[in-house]
Design brief:
Radius of gyration: 18 Å
Order of helices and strands: HHHHHHHHHHHHHHHHH
Largest sheet: none
Bound molecules: magnesium ion
Number of helices: 17
Strand content: under 5%
Helix content: 55-70%
CATH superfamily: ADP-ribosylation/Crystallin J1
CATH topology: ADP-ribosylglycohydrolase fold
Shape: globular
Number of domains: 1
Number of strands: 0
Length: 313
């Protein structure tokens, strides 16, 4: 390996590690605030400081499943990924899963196909944020190939969330991760926003991406939640997560603390913000004391390096 390719290797390993550990730390930071009223940054930091362990929730648990399947298959395979989701759920069903996934998994175990079970349970499809919260590894893996990224992000969404708004949220979150992770020089928040707008198809998302521009400079974070939302619907969570990451392009901690402080679906929004911010800034940007408290961090590190190696082939 030459000096420059080793530098490139280390650079991307840091970004892949930053993304996976960043999403897990954001999820864990936000977990005690899930469903809460908006709070202050200092309360979020105090909660982090008083905890001895950072425990992540279903968001990270499912992102682990996405990563494991991408590594094992060398790309997206819907049938395989569904089997991994079911295996992981059966091992740790206490991670805070919503009502949907266990019902869908049960139906698949009884013989339904992976891309039809969700539609049978939710006619018209779910547009919850559950497929966007886990999609970051797809953005890393396909970071230089928007066409295959869109197919994989939307494909993994169909396992549980088939509505076009659910699929679009999963794609835009993956794309935001890819744009943040891509090579030097780093894209500016304005450039990332413009690229997302080029690729978005659904009017609801186009409108919210447009509104992010006006929120990048606001000194009133409550405005973010009131304009973009902070809920469990993908369109009320993905633009919000992107906004928090873009408002703090040089600080992972400021980005995820702000995401948690908005309240609402705090663990999921902070998980998605953490994925984008960690992919952009690399592992070095995540506070060491948070990484030291984060459960399963060795396994997440190992997965990140294996995902980088699989993506590079
Ligand atoms: Mg959760």
């Amino acid at each position: 390996m030459t000096g420059s390719s080793r530098k490139n290797d280390d650079y991307f390993k840091s970004k892949f590690r930053g993304c996976l550990l960043g999403l897990a730390a954001g999820d864990a930071l936000g977990a005690p605030f899930e469903g809460a009223w908006p709070t202050t940054a200092s309360q979020v930091l105090a909660s982090a400081a008083e905890r001895t362990r950072f425990r992540y929730t279903d968001d990270t648990h499912m992102a682990i499943g996405v990563t494991e399947s991408l590594i094992a298959c060398g790309g997206f395979d819907g049938h395989h990924m569904t089997e991994v989701f079911i295996r992981n759920f059966d091992r740790e069903p206490w991670r805070g899963y919503g009502a949907g996934p266990p019902r869908i998994f049960q139906k698949i175990k009884a013989g339904a196909s992976w891309n039809e079970a969700a539609e049978d349970i939710y006619p018209g499809g779910s547009y919850g944020n559950g497929s966007a919260m886990r999609t970051a590894p797809v953005g890393l893996f396909y970071r230089e190939d928007v066409g295959n990224m869109a197919t994989a992000a939307r494909g993994q969404s169909k396992i549980t969330h088939t509505h076009p708004w659910g699929q679009e949220g999963a794609f835009l979150q993956a794309l935001a991760v890819a744009l943040a992770a891509n090579s030097e020089p780093l894209l500016s928040p304005g450039e990332i926003l413009a690229r997302l707008q080029e690729q978005a198809k659904e009017g609801l998302y186009l409108q919210k991406l447009d509104q992010i521009k006006n929120l990048l400079g606001t000194d009133n974070p409550a405005e973010i939640a009131s304009v973009l939302g902070h809920g469990i619907e993908a369109f009320n969570a993905v633009p919000t997560a992107i906004c928090c990451a873009l408002r703090h392009p040089h600080s992972y901690a400021d980005a995820v603390v702000e995401a948690v402080s908005l309240g609402g679906d705090a663990d999921t929004i902070a998980c998605m913000t953490g994925a984008i911010s960690g992919a952009g800034l690399g592992i070095e940007a995540i506070p060491e004391e948070w990484l030291a408290k984060l459960e399963n961090s060795d396994y997440l590190e190992k997965l990140a390096v294996e995902l980088w190696e699989a993506a590079r082939l």
